[in-house]
Design goal:
422 residues, alpha+beta, Phosphatase 2c, domain 1, five-stranded antiparallel β-sheet, 46% helix, PPM-type_phosphatase-like_dom, EC 3.1.3.16
Length: 422
């Protein structure tokens, strides 16, 4: 187990998962988060069934050797020491049943070989199986810890407020066997406005991680350097073409919040965002002309036309990946109707950060109800609204590149300690 300790230490040194999270991963992987009495229940139930069957069948039927099922069942859920304890009780029960059936002579082969030797041998092998199971669970927990650390390093959780925006994010990876999902997002306050990206890399695993790292790294550089949002996308396209594995592509949606009251969007084959007004009205912001994902730009010359949409205080922008809209109903198999459900769930979420966070929680809970509690793909939900206090400060700050609103001339800047206006 020394190698496992070293792996866990390396993850912790890299700023990965907290020790408690690593312990929880191991407990869940090996069922050790379940109380002992529940894990021991199957083996104890088998013990009781064999004992009852032998007792009720009378002394002329010798069913005590069936007690060998107890070690086998115990090896599935118990630790080796716990298994030995349960098997010791089963061994005493075996002796009692043998005495009841008057089969206690060591020279009797039914007793010596059919019961005693078989039970002890199977107990030893079952303890070995339990130890092997625990080591495999520890290896799985180590892989899961490393995967989670890599995911956290790649996807830096944005602050609840970035520039003039309030944000609430739910990202859930449905990765199995320690695989890492390919959903990505980032929000940056730059000299050219607050810019964001939401994307989904084709596939999973290390290839998807490499492509996501290329996309996010290029975005975090280009978003500060390029004045046009289309130029940001072009820089990322070039980086993906140079550094991403062959055949990998990424659907993406770019957003730029520069001027108060509007947002500029660029679609690269991604799920269109949904705009929810304060009254709950829903508008799906489809691109006028669909464009190819990042990494396939060589197939189509030019670049997509930006979509400029009014986006005022009170509006909420709902961004997601296909893991949300393609989540199937647990009985009918229908896709999750996000556009139909999201209006009432998000309405009025712009009033505060707490309301926005509560709203994204409601949408995610509704998604889980639709799927029956499980997701088969990574799912990213992001809610974005304007912080009107931040908007006012931005317009009134001298020396900013952004244009001041003449209607606010002469108005005093909002106090930095004032709570957001509901």
């Amino acid at each position: 187990m020394l190698w496992f300790s070293r792996v866990r230490s390396a993850v912790a040194d890299a700023g990965g998962v907290m020790p408690a999270r690593r312990r929880n991963a191991l407990l869940v992987a090996d069922l050790q988060d379940i109380p002992f009495w529940r894990r021991a229940a199957p083996a104890v139930l088998a013990l009781l069934i064999v004992s009852l069957a032998d007792f009720l069948s009378g002394q002329d039927r010798y069913l005590a050797p069936l007690m060998v099922v107890v070690p086998s069942v115990a090896s599935l859920t118990l630790k080796p020491r716990e298994l030995l304890g349960v098997c010791a009780v089963a061994f005493l029960a075996l002796l009692g049943l043998s005495n009841h059936d008057q089969v206690v002579d060591l020279r009797d082969g039914r007793f010596l070989y059919g019961a005693m030797v078989s039970f002890v041998t199977l107990t030893v092998f079952s303890a070995m199986v339990a130890e092997l199971r625990m080591r495999r669970a520890a290896a799985f927990a180590a892989v899961s810890s490393v995967a989670e650390a890599a995911q956290r390093a790649l996807l830096r959780q944005p602050e609840p407020t970035v520039g003039p925006l309030r944000l609430a994010v739910r990202y859930v990876s449905a990765a199995d066997a320690g695989r890492i999902g390919g959903d990505l997002y980032s929000v940056l306050d730059t000299p050219h406005g607050t810019r964001l990206i939401v994307g989904d890399v084709r596939g999973k695993g290390l290839g998807a991680v490499q492509t996501a790292a290329v996309v996010l790294g290029a975005f975090r550089e280009a978003a500060y350097d390029e004045k046009r949002l289309g130029s940001v996308a072009a820089r990322i396209e070039a980086s993906v073409a140079r550094h991403a594995p062959d055949g990998e592509f990424t659907t993406a949606l770019f957003g730029e919040f520069r001027e108060p009251g509007s947002v500029q969007l660029l679609h690269f084959g991604h799920v269109p965002p949904i705009q929810v007004g304060r009254d709950g009205r829903v508008a799906v912001l489809e691109a006028a002309e669909p464009w190819v994902p990042l990494g396939l730009g060589s197939l189509t010359p030019g670049e997509p036309e930006p979509l400029n949409v009014p986006f005022d205080t009170g509006d909420v922008l709902v961004l997601c990946t296909d893991g949300v809209i393609e989540a199937r109903h647990h009985r009918t198999g229908e896709f999750y109707p996000l556009a139909e459900r999201v209006g009432p769930l998000v309405r009025g979420a712009d009033r505060s950060l707490a309301e926005l966070e509560s709203a994204v929680g409601r949408v995610y809970a509704d998604l889980l109800v639709h799927t029956g509690g499980e997701l088969n793909d990574d799912a990213l939900l992001m809610l974005v609204c304007r912080d009107d206090r931040a908007d006012r400060e931005k317009r009134l700050t001298p020396g900013r590149e952004d244009r001041r609103d003449p209607a606010d001339d002469g108005a005093a800047p909002a106090d930095a300690g004032t709570a957001p206006r509901p």
